[in-house]
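Quick question, first post here. What does this chain look like in 3D?
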Amino acid sequence: MKHAKLWALAVLCMVCMLVCGSASARTTTVMMYMCGTDIQEDGLRDLQEICTGATSEDIRVVVLAGGTEGWSDRRLNNGRLNLFTIQQGQWSEVTDWGTGSMGSPDTLARFVEYCWQNCRGDRNMLIMWNHGSSAFDGLCFDELYSDDSLTVAELGSCFKDLSARLSDFHLDIVGADACLMGCYEMAVTLAPYADCYIGSEELEPWLGWYYTNWLQELSANSEMTSRELAAAVVNAFEYCAERDDPNDYLTLSAIDLSRIPTLREHINSLAATLTNVVNGSGLNDISRTVRSMYVFGSYDDAGSDMVDLNEFLTMCGTYDPQTAAQAKTALKEAVITSYASSSVPAATGLSIMVPVESSDYLYTYMRDYTSDALSGYSSFVTAFANAVSGGSYTFSASSQSTQVSSNVTIAGSAGTPAYGSGYGYNTSGLVIAGSAGQQTATAAPAAQDTAAPGGIVIAGSAGQQTATPTPAPQDTTAPGGIVIAGSAGQQTATAAPAEATPAPTAAAGTVASADTNGQYTFSVSLTDEDLHYLSYAELLVFQDFSDGGVWDLDELGSVRDTRIDWNNGVVYAVFDGTWPVIGDVYVVMYEQSRTDYGRRCIIPVMLNDTTKTYLVVEYAAGSQEGTILGTSRGWTENGLPVRGVTPLEIGDIISPIYPTYTSTSETEPAVDEMSTSWQVYNDPEFRITWDGTQKVTQAAMSADTPLRMAFRLHDIFGGSTTTALTSITLNQEN
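> Answer (accepted):
Ran it through. Tokens below.
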């Protein structure tokens, strides 16, 4: 009898173990907060991916969909909030949840509270889906409510209120399937309320996250840790995005929020130091360095002011090396995994805002930026923005004519192509600490300064000399970063004033067969005060169509190879007489990024006579031939970043756009005083019919092309001054 009882007890235990084992499988609730706006079709595609991937009964996806004037799926009510669930690949019946802005923290709080009280799982994950506009404007822009959005400060208040109202409220993962939201500001705001955060430093491609793969992994293994699940989201994105377009700007990171408080402590300390520097005499150094950094989401007419946090900490190391090093360690420990494609020059997991271009809007966004979580860092943001927006400077060199001499080679510049510098990303800065003259010198190697793309400082002096230099110390005032004492090779740079020869007329945009291999070196002299306020310089190239008292200039962009002699106050630029073309049409081109793998540029165009957009062009390292990947609008008229690159279709009509300067002044006007507009020519010679094979190449400019040159000097406050125009006539000698 005793044995029978023991046997029965054993059987009962085994049954209990089986039941408990089945019930203990970890359930996951995914709260999908989907604001459709003008990308609702992409959202519906992601919902289909969810249906394909979430096959386990242990996964329940609760969706709140709204924020758009019209859904392409008839199951969803236009202009309303739609609540439904997806489980084992099936939609539930859609519930009309009334109206409300998806950009309101009240709507988000209502949704999260509903899920917490009615659909709470063992693991709870919130995904906010829509456009993102960084720490500046947040995410989830509801087009039914004037693009109202959830700011970072509003998110902080929302989660703080939820934590006060809901017992044990804490999310396992929060993610932003949106552009530009992989930032320190989001991480530090969410740290008290979640374990992990997922976001992208850069713009996201049109496909966004790839839901199928990571949900399939979760369906197969419900016991995944939250760190493993967050990493799976990043890995799935990498797989799908690389397969779709490996040349696109691609970033996504998973962050361990438990590590953020330590990082915050170090950043607050560095912010206090930087604030003292800005309020002292160091604004020019900080402004120059920040303006040399890669800015995420940048186009020629808009940007996010978000820079990579690790790159920012490198700058901080100039003023507090120990704390900056500790902050870098904390950042590295916080990043669970981070993916960046080869097109992105700087992305280590999180970005941070430095208000360079947005400083004029300080009082508009600071009320939404300042919060308890950001109280330390926002003190630096406020100080820097106030200093930049409150200052202005006009360079004395504005009245000078640019000096020019032909067939000149300065070490390190020969053979480089000409193209425009990207918005917020100064790639032009080859910097010489020395002056014009004839010299022979042997350069000593120097360490790379990661905060200064392309920068070289060369110490030398006027006159003719032969020298074997020794390594020079870092010149902290130079926007470039590599310090070399001396310059390699023999250089001749005797800059003589060019004759103001009237340029003959010629058809703009058409490339002739003239061979112009000569180098042209331009220079302009600056005072000590000019140098103090100088951030960077560029040499602008114009085609001159002035006729009959009407001044008419088309800007082609700026020459890349620009150098600053900080010791003697001279800016140099080298022009090799070639320019980017598509077919036989000159184009304006701006560089967006540069890495060891190549560079990425954009060309403003009118597509099919209706849409202003940009051609996106990819150059392999060392190549002079650019591959056209497609088009991107950059940012919408409402200030929202546009996802991804749209491929061109055979037969598309591409018309280059040129910045145009005009004036009816009786005497030659200053460029800064001329009226500006965008010019699109309807002449057939300016219209390019896409056949799927065209490339962007470098072509020699015709000797008949009427060219004018002028330096644009950018000050540390974000303004600029353009020098007087200089005419040149290209030669045709080899």
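The chain has two domains: 25-388, 396-728.
The first helix runs from residue 2 to 23.
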